[in-house]
Here is the input.
Amino acid sequence: MTTSSPPATGLDGAAIDGGLYTDVTNFARDTHWLNEPVAVFSDIGMGLFALFLLVAWWRARRQGTTVMTAVLATPFAVILAYALNSGIKNVFQEPRPCRALPHDFLIEACPPVDDYAFPSNHTTVAFAFAAALLLISRWLGSIALLTAVTMGASRVYVGAHYPHDVGVGALVGTVVTLIVVLLARRLAVPLVERMSTGPLSPLLVARTAKRARPSARASRAAARARV
Here is the structure.
């Protein structure tokens, strides 16, 4: 068992919901069969959101410029949400719970001292994707939202974050993305329309299928029918 105290200058996350965090990590200790799947998902599950956005882009090629504009704005929204979240981390400098609370079992190794906990970057990015996808496609966004909730829960389960780190991360990702994507849909549609008629058009607009030419036999049969 290890113990440590948070520096006086940082946010004391343990005083906010340290007890709930401990309850979750104790649950993780008692569910060894679940540890590996959650750890793998928490580590590489972010790739699912890139896959969701790829599907949204492919479908948007047939859904019009407004939808495509939202798809194109999504990466910018995610990057901005991540940058803002990282700035909040540096302001509050909340020590990771593994450094602030006694523990005898954690799935994820304790990060460096200057890798702060509040808010959760994983959760911020996950909810940023989910919020954008909800504006693009209700069914795809619903899947992404469920995945984002699971990602946030996994960060507490593996011992990396307090629950409030996850909650605020979800709020940051959602708010920033809604602002960016809605502004893009209002202001950037004409730009995407111009791009859709240039060299990038195959990436932005699906070509309509050409009508198949009738065979010679079919043509003769049609001619006889007209006679």
Summary: Residues 1-8, 209-216 have pLDDT under 50 and may be disordered. The CA atoms of residues 20 and 188 lie 44 Å apart.
